[in-house]
Amino acid sequence: MDAERPTLPEGVELNVFLEAWAFIRDELTLIVRNGIGGLALVIVALVIFLRAGSAFWVTMGIPVTFMASLLGFYYLGGTINAVSLIGFIMALGIVVDDAIVVGEESLTQFDAGRSPADAAAAGAKNMLPPVLASSLTTLCAFTPLVAAGEAPLREVALIMLVVIAASLIECFLILPGHLRHAFERARSKTPGKWRSRFDTGFQNFRENRFRPLVGLAMANRAVVLSAAIGMFVVMLLVWLTGWLKTEMNLNLDFEEIRADVRFVSGAEDDDKRAFLAHLEEALSTTDAEQGGGNLVNHLVQVNTASINNEFKSGPQFASIRVELVSPEKRNLSADEFVVAWQDNVRRAPVVDVMAIARERSWSSDFSILLKGASAADLKRAADEVIGELVTLAAFPICATTCLGAGINGC
User: Fold this and answer.
1) What integer best gives the mean pLDDT of the chain?
2) Which of 82, 67, 88 shows the shortest CA–CA distance to 30?
3) How many CB atoms lie within 10 A of CB 332?
4) Separation between Cα atoms, residue 406 and residue 306, nearest integer Å
5) Whose CB among 137, 258, 273, 354 lies 3.0–4.6 Å from 403's, allowing a Cys bridge?
6) 395, pLDDT greater than 60
């Protein structure tokens, strides 16, 4: 672009508007940052509750498993995107759980006096049935999604399948050998004071607090099972009754708002340009009032607008599209910015209809469009429809402010 700008005719400017890659980058960065934060917490927990050597090899198994998973995911036709990264974060718990139980059981066998080789082998052998059963349960849950028509569901299912397969290979074929070497080095070292105090305190908590609680639960199996079933039924009812909403939409929206204008018939071009300039001035004022730095760019379009959810073209139409920075870089939402911008816009006699709203990348579940020759009748009908809809808790109403005699809703 820098090379093209000097070649443009006088009065022509070249600017970038609505860089889609930047929004995807921000979403992926947020997901990766959350994943790294979760991994850091996992590593801290491993170092505290396992010995340093065992914790190190359990931790090293996580990136190895994910690299193997990425290889299998690639050959199965998967792609790296916001949805697949969420799937990898979900699978992180599976990888860590498998490695932890094998490492903890091997450490228990080693502390019981077995040799490093025997302890590592016994830990893997003892944990094979429960880990395999848990993995097969997860496979049964996700395998049907591979045949799903929705690409996001298919990718998440593929991720879970390849991660489980890689985790099983790493835990039972690779990790025991590393644990054996770690136990051989640990056998010649004396635990430090902090480690000795922590192990003693944790053992006291396990024997004097946790184990009696488990024994009480085992002695009252019917009560515990009934409580678990009751909680499951309650949560199921919360979902079935609509209290808990479910939606597959990831809300990966471009942060864009727009102002659409329909001028009165016969409006002069100078008056139209003056009002559009006022809209731009109000936009800049709103940005300054909200601390600045909320805008990336804006684009003024003439002869086109979206009026009453229909795209219109002609000399009486105009619109302004505004690109906002990502939500993490501003203190207010796009909807709040819309309200603030509306408050700074003055009424103008040349404007028939104007609506400022957030641009959304998906269609609503349903929409109602009212048309008619009388603005008064349309306004009365719109109020009656909204009055009925607001009584239904399952249908949130999206409203926009209209200047002039026109009616606009979404």
Assistant:
1) 81
2) 82
3) 15
4) 13
5) 354
6) no
Other Cβ atoms closer than 10 A to 88: 21
Q: Is 193 exposed, middle or buried (0-12, 13-18, 19+ CB in 10 A)?
A: exposed
- Domains in the chain: ranges and CATH: 20-189 (1.20.1640.10), 256-404 (3.30.70.1430)
CA dihedral sign of residues 280, 286, 291, 297: negative
- The pairing of strands 402-404 and 351-358 is antiparallel
Q: SS3 sequence, the chain?
A: CCCCHHHCCCCCCCCCCCCHHHHHHHHHHHHHHHHHHHHHHHHHHHHHHCCHHHHHHHHHHHHHHHHHHHHHHHHCCCCCCHHHHHHHHHHHHHHHHHHHHHHHHHHHHHHCCCCHHHHHHHHHHHHHHHHHHHHHHHHHHHHHHHHCCCHHHHHHHHHHHHHHHHHHHHHHHHHHHHHHHHHHHHHCCCCCHHHHHHHHHHHHHHHHHHHHHHHHHHHCHHHHHHHHHHHHHHHHHHHHCCCCCCCCCCCCCCCEEEEEEEECCCCCHHHHHHHHHHHHHHHHHHHHHCCCCCEEEEEEEEEEEEECCEEEEEEEEEEEEEEECCHHHCCCCHHHHHHHHHHCCCCCCCEEEEEEEECCCCCCCCCCCCCCCCHHHHHHHHHHHHHHHCCCCCCCCCCCCEEECCCCCC
pTM: 0.58
pLDDT in tens, 322-332: 888 877 778 88
Cα–Cα distance for residue pair 329/294, rounded to 1 Å: 8
Structure tokens at 146: 């591979």
Phi, psi of 297 (to 5 degrees): -170, 165
Cα→Cα distances 85→94, 134, 307, 403, Å: 15, 23, 38, 44
